[in-house]
Batch of 2 targets.
Target 1
Amino acid sequence: MVASMSKRRCGVGVSVLDDLLYAVGGHDGSSYLNSVERYDPKTNQWSSDVAPTSTCRTSVGVAVVGGYLYAVGGQDGVSCLNIVERYFLIKKSGAQREEGLLEGAIDADELERDFVVYSSARYDPKENKWTRVASMSTRRLGVAVAVLGGFLYAVGGSDGTSPLNTELSSSSPCLEMCVGRC
């Protein structure tokens, strides 16, 4: 039997990175969540020591491309979101340090120096805080996210009024997503 998560979640986005299952955001029945939990099937344990997303949200699309976990769109209970965040690991002195979710579709070839990412966003390790970067252009909820041929695809969703089934966007990790999702 799989261990229980620390928080119940509906509308949670999940994906696998480095043989670990990540659960991003969701709704616990009373609150929208920005927490991220990681499941290790080898130990059958969930860990909540993962940096949270910048925004509480549910109905978030999550996928892995190029070794990075992307959280796309969602809703915060008030509006659809057009935020893209990227989770990454930094290797320093042979160890991996989990840093959190970085907003925006970022260049996969970015440089990492002393735990600072030099691209369109920056992480402050002292504050454990991210600086907001470019968002997607259109807001959506319930968007599906997948990877095909090294591209991250965001498909369908709703603008909060009606389903959007004619919209398909793709992005390589070095380009901004052209259509927002929530």
Target 2
Amino acid sequence: MCPFHTVGLTWSTFKTREVNQPVTVFCHLKVYLGVSDTTLLPTGIEVDSFPHPGFENKPGNDIMLLKLKTPATLNKTVTIIDLPNPWNDKMLKDCLVMGWGSMIYKHYSPSTVLRELNVTLNNLTHCFEPDVICNKDPSGPSQGDSGGPLVCKDIAMGIVSFNLEKTEGYITGYTRVSQHLLWINKIMKKNNI
């Protein structure tokens, strides 16, 4: 179960892999909208998937679009989120990250309840690629949170990609959604949205 961004009534963004793992070819995906507890799953919506063509098992291109085969019904738990503009993604600092990851350090046991964490993005002088947002924080996403959304002021800024444990603390990498806007718009236009 992965949280994701809903960017339209029939579109979502999603992370395609765990770091250092081969990409999985999905034959039959379903999306569960508005779910915050996996013990109470409603009927899922089938989707068509569009993985990023530049995926090379590296951070930054690990993104996929999902087209819902049935339009979403909007309500208090299912809403549409804005995509970023290329010029506003560097000025946002106070964000929310969500995921189903483990609450126990270095022990993967997925949560059955969707977890949320407020994070403040700090500028790091070094990041891996321009399409990766890096953040150094004593707390942040953990194992199993990959694919979770990074939301800043109701804007889909990033997707949890990886965590690195360094001597100076944790670094979390997020796929930078604004770097993929041309591709996102091209796929949505090509598929009549």
